[in-house]
Amino acid sequence: DAGQILVDGRPVAIRSPADALAAGIGMVHQHFHLVDRHSVLENLMVGEPGRRGLLDRSSARARLAELGDRYGLRLDPDRPAGALSVGEQQRLEITKALYRGARVLILDEPTSVLTPQETEGLFRAIRTMAAQGVGVIFISHKLNEVRAITDRLVVMRRGAVVADAANDGSLSARRLALLMCGHELTAPAREAASPGPVLLALDRVSTRRRPEHPVALKEVSLEVRGGEILGIIGVSGNGQRELAELIGGTLGASGGRIELAGRTVTGAGARERRRLGIAHVPEDRLGAGLLSALPLADSMILARIGEAPFSRRGLLDRGAARRFASAQIEKFGIRTQGPEVRTGTLSGGNLQKALLARELAFEPLVLVAAQPTRGLDVAAKEFVHSQLLALRARGRAVLVISEDLEELFEIADRIAVMFEGRVLEDMPAAEAEVARIGLLMAGTEPGP
Q1: Helix (H, G, I), strand (E, B), or coil: what is residue 443?
Q2: Left if phi > 0, otherwise alpha if psi is -120 to 50, otherwise beta: which for 443?
């Protein structure tokens, strides 16, 4: 609406992604822009003109392998993008930007689902590109990452730049957090755990491998008691998504038993499990959790549509839906213009608040939250943690699946490590060691 964008000192008009690419600007979005039915290789080649009207698949395949080896972002070129885990989809988005060789690379939360090793590999690539004259804009809410990788720090709050300084140590992590949020942050109160009875139990549960679920769970046994938080850690794509969907009821078990408060629910579907008290916050907020193209009120009642008070005699009561959504917007501080706004216009933090509000509104016995703070700023992350701890304090069972080990150390009472569809170890968080967990995440059984 105003101002200028300069590339190489010259004004440019950027009206589309194609204009940006033509100007040498590559973008990796926080929410993915992939064609699910196309293969990894086909997604990589989208937009290429080809040679004499033909796509050069062999060169693209070789380039994909080269990037995978160089940056640790290996992908099977023939797998459909829709069959990839969220972490693998993120790798593909990063690879797409690297493949195009942009002179200016914009990365929006690029490490949110990467392992520490993959993150360091990406950082090495960023440093190499910067040394060769590429400009990199690294957008992240992880203060330790922006301080580790950048030359300059720019802090934005509500659309305005509030700080622009050299990354020379003059801005402390506390000062950065204050600038980002506009107020001092206080860690949510975390009382000692007082575990009650087992509310969720998995006894040697297995699943079958499918195109949309490429990792099979193998005799997974877990217990979560009321009044405790169990954290699940693992490298992306090792069965965490399958575990969450199994418990939520959208993925069936091929063996074993699932119990909710002593009642067998192995054969129950998602709707029945929700009615009995299992809530599920999926890792893909817009793809699996909410309806991006419809009003927020519709997304907020999605899990209960067809039930009272939102449905009467088979007809949707939109007034009840709006009243429910408005109450949750106020209770959870969701920043939006109202329940009729299109869901997809909300920020990542507000989308996550909406998902949590919907799942917590009916006081579940068990909450399964997959990547609950992925891509959130420090204030939104603090809010989500406070809600999880409050549910724990009310005697409910909480299972948090995260690839952020620091997060699990902050809120979890126990930590279980997954590798290739198995739970390798389940340990009290107070006794967990970073080195040991790192080895388990890599599939290596540590010695005594």
Answers
A1: coil
A2: left
Rounded CA separation 408/425 (Å): 15
Distances (CA, A) of 14 to 103, 135, 415: 16, 18, 47
- Write out the H or E segment, with its range, that includes residue 418: strand 414-419
Structure tokens given for 183: 């107020």
Angle at 428 between CA 423 and CA 429, to 5 degrees: 100
pTM (whole model) above 0.85 = no
**189: alpha, beta or left? (left if phi > 0; alpha if psi -120 to 50):** beta
The C-alpha atoms of residue 102 and residue 106 are separated, in whole angstroms, by 9
CA 288 to chain centre: 12
Could you tell me if 98 and 219 are in contact, meaning their C-beta atoms sit under 8 angstroms apart? no
pLDDT at position 115 is 60
* Distance separating alpha carbons of residues 418 and 426, to the nearest angstrom: 9
Say what the alpha-carbon torsion angle 364, 222, 190, 289 is, to the nearest 10 degrees.
-50
328-338 burial, b at 16+ Cβ within 10 Å, e below that, comes to: bbeebebebee
Burial of 8 (0-12, 13-18, 19+ CB in 10 A): exposed
* CA 347-350-355 angle, 5° bins: 125
Residue among 98, 185, 178, 112 nearest 145 (CA):
112
Number of CB atoms found within 10 A of residue 111's CB? 21
Instruction: Give the number of C-alpha atoms closer than 13 A to the C-alpha of residue 82, restricted to the C-beta side.
Output: 9
Placement of tokens 């150390």 in the chain: 409
- Estimate to the nearest angstrom the gap between the alpha carbon of 119 and the chain centroid: 15
How many angstroms separate the CA atoms of 369 and 248, rounded?
10
Tokens of 115: 């392992």
Please state, in angstroms and rounded to a whole number, the distance separating the CA atoms of residues 239 and 85.
Answer: 9
Collapsed DSSP state (helix, strand, coil) of residue 372: coil
Residue in 156, 96, 110, 135 with CA at minimum distance from that of residue 6: 135
In this structure, how many other beta carbons lie within 10 angstroms of the beta carbon of residue 252? 12
Residues present in the chain in total: 448
Q: Strand, helix or coil at 241? A: helix
pLDDT tens digits for range 372-422: 987 677 778 888 899 999 999 999 999 999 988 888 988 999 999 999 999
Give me the half-sphere count of Cα atoms (radius 13 Å) on the Cβ side of residue 151: 7
State the pLDDT at residue 145: 84
Kindly tell me the number of DSSP H helices and DSSP E strands found in the chain. Answer: 15, 19
- β-strands 135-139, 104-108: how paired? parallel
